[in-house]
Write a structure and sequence with these properties.
Distance between the termini: 33 Å
Number of domains: 2
Order of helices and strands: EHEHHHEH
Strand order of the largest sheet: 1-2-3
Structural class: alpha+beta
Number of helices: 5
Number of strands: 3
Strand content: 15-25%
Length: 123
């Protein structure tokens, strides 16, 4: 399980508590609170659905030609849908890779002044 750390409850961009603490420009004389959570990578299937693409194509063709297109695409098999998903995933990887992740199970952790000094190697 990959963990990411944040200092502002939003930008979980640090790989360790130490990195998160080092990013804070203020004095740590009262300690501080950092957050951490489990990293879940975003996949193309999380942002686009082949079912929606197919439904959109079906609606569009029906809008353009009317009843003649009723039922078009209804015989698409799960294998054909998987093939479309593979095409989408390759296109995303080649043209606009996903450099994001979502964070789940977020927890706060208070770090005392003494712990901050120990983590940063300061006396």
């Amino acid at each position: 399980m990959k963990i990411a750390w944040a200092t502002d409850s939003e930008n979980f961009r640090y790989a360790s508590m130490k990195e998160a603490i080092e990013s804070i420009d203020t004095d740590h004389d009262k300690g501080l609170t950092v957050e951490f959570g489990e990293v879940i990578d975003i996949k193309p299937s999380d942002i686009i659905s082949t079912v929606n693409i197919i439904d959109n194509m079906q609606s569009s063709i029906c809008d353009q030609v009317g009843e003649a297109a009723e039922g078009w695409g209804s015989d698409i098999t799960p294998e054909q849908e998987a093939s479309l998903q593979a095409i989408i995933e390759k296109w995303v990887a080649d043209n606009c890779p996903l450099h994001f992740w979502k964070i789940i199970n977020v927890k706060e952790q208070f770090v005392s002044c003494a712990e901050v000094k120990e983590i940063l190697g300061k006396e």
